[in-house]
Amino acid sequence: MKTVGDESARLPGGRAALFMWAGVVVTLVLVAVGFRVSSFDGLALLMLASATLVLAAVAGGVRLHRPRFARGWWLIFASVGLALAGNVIVATLFPPAVATGGFAINVIYGITYPILCAGVALLPNHGRRGAATIGLTESAIIASGAAVIWWMVFVDPALIDTGLIHSQAYLLVEPFLDLVLLTFGVRLLLLSDSRSVSYWLVAVSCGVRLTADTAYLTVGSGAGFPTEVSIVGWVVGNGLLTVAALHPSMKRTVPLPAGQDSLSRHGATRIYVGTVVATPVLTGLFLLREGLAGTLGSLDVVVPMIATACTSALVVQRMRQLNGVAAQRARDLEQALHNQAELQRELRFRSEHDVLTGLPGRTVLHDRLAAALGSDRPGALLLLDLDGFKDVNDRFGHAVGDDLLVEVSARLRALFDGALVARLHSDEFAALLEGASLTDAWATAERVLVAMRRPLPVPGHELFATVSMGLREFEDGRRAADVARDAYLALHAAKEAGRNQFVLYDEQLRERRLEAARTVERLREALTRDEFLVFYQPLIRLADEHIAGVEALIRWQPPGEAMVLPDRFIGISEDSGLIVPIGAWVLRESCRVVAGWHRRHGTVVSVNVSPRQLREPGFGLMVLDALDSSGLPPEALILEITEGVLVDSGLVTEQAISHLSMLRTHGVRVAVDDFGTGYSSLAYLRDLPIDHVKIDRSFMPAPGMPDPAARVVVKAIVDLAAGLRLGTIAEGVETAEQVELLRELGCERAQGFYFSCPVPEADAARLIGESRERLTSG
């Protein structure tokens, strides 16, 4: 990325270079001519040409380089133009005696100097308000010191010691004005950098102008500079302005320092300090020399002393400015520190508190819990989790869910008046009951449980947000992390027990959790070691008691141990997610085994599918792949699911229905296991992808006991399924009376210990073969 400063630092090229070097050449020619000028007319023509060159250069430079702020250059143009016009008017309209007199010249330049000073002062201004005074005090100090030296070296020998001061005092007008101009030139140097070639040339031209006018002042003493020095100096000064106006750096934007702090940035401190020290020293030496020479007069004392006093006053002013800058910086620093402290407090509050509810977060709870455990006072930690909060987000959106969390937070604050209530994560909260006995904590938990069963007003809705809670009493020697872990165990136990209740932690909870963790690790190893087996329980067609199919049931056989039944590890597998690979293995193994039975005997297989499996995006493709790799036709596979998978489970239900619908289009059939035990609504039987219902064993009449109510329930289920063109399968059949009842009521298939318990693959093959032989022989 290019900047203005980068461009101006490069050497000029093209048309700009041509104009600039042309100005240099013309200036050199005029300088050469200046050494040969001897008449007033020749001097007038030389100055006319020099001033015209400046005017052309300024106008051309502004047009060529287009500086953003050109006011300073146009003021320089006006000053030189007025001086030129004044010289022409005086030379042509006034008598020679007046035209060559010092009074006329002083009047002309006295008018133009303020304009020229303003132009030089505005060159680095760049339109910023108050920028014209930046660096002015330092420049005035340096110029004041230079004035003392100038007076002692040039004015005193030329006018004071020679006694010409009374007759040629007018010669001091222009040099004094040059000193004012020098102040702005020095300021320009202080504010510029090494790439500001144009500004440096303008500053040097101010010094050259002072030199030329000083040389002219000393001509009358007879011991000063020759006249050619003044003439050449005036030409060189204008030439420097010419080159400065044509140089590309004339358009640079030099960054100005803030306030009055300009010297520290540009390294001019040495010049500043040197001037302040040297001025009184040189003044003292000058007065001493004049006194020893016997030429000490009033002007020898007054003028240097006034200049020294001005320098001192300017130093004091500079110190005031620096004090003001320091004070402002101190105020700014104090305000910045205050803002930083406020920001740190705000950031700490935000890091320790929940933005939505304003409740403290996990860090605050942990610190308070650790402090409470170290105080030897009784107390308890209560963890709360909203029941069904995910369903609220799914049904109403996260905005309503956030409103609900805010209302829950407000209610918990009121219920735990004075206790620390924290939001830990999403719909998870905690309450620290410091100083409360177990009895008080128990009573508080019951009160909260009842209060949270009341509806909560949310904009546009009235929602219920019951809670599951885990309660952990403080114990000596326990760490905060241990108490929190135990409270979580109690909370999980409350959720597993049916929710909307609380559980008090005891050691058995931890033992059960550790046992579950150990079981999970063993299940992972069992997958890699092929420790799982599939048993098969026959599905009997009641019309002829022929084995029409089998239900695949997993068993776990650790080496050297007793076989582990499913009820001891299926729930843990579901919670840990291991049911996904385990269920996939059961499906593939069952399809592989039953494929041969189906080819010989037409046997079908029923495989249980967990809700967790149906949440997998690739479940449907996995089933089709298992069928394809085994050769089992899709019509020979029945997937058994529970009612909960298909009813009121939000996005999970939609995904499950999508999987099952896709599989049914390929011929796979679906059965609802444990029908009637989970939901009272039966509308899903009509609308959802189902082919069979399995009558739960709890609806069957007890063996040996007449049960008219059970008969009515079973008949209602069979009739309902028949009306919806669904097949029926009865589970848990154990007696001949139950078989006769089911056959009489029109149930199609049954399974249970009356026919056969689940058996290994070889026994199942034998039973199927025997059943086939009986059917063909009969």
Automatic annotation (TrEMBL):
Residues 377-507 form the GGDEF domain. The keyword Membrane applies. The keyword Membrane applies. InterPro entries: Biofilm_reg_signaling, EAL_dom, EAL_sf, GGDEF_dom, Nucleotide_cyclase, Rev_trsase/Diguanyl_cyclase. CDD domains: EAL, GGDEF. Residues 516-772 form the EAL domain. The chain crosses the membrane at residues 16-37, 43-62, 74-97, 103-123, 135-154, 169-190, 231-250, 271-288, 294-316. It holds the Pfam family GGDEF. Keywords: Membrane, Transmembrane, Transmembrane helix. This is Bifunctional diguanylate cyclase/phosphodiesterase.
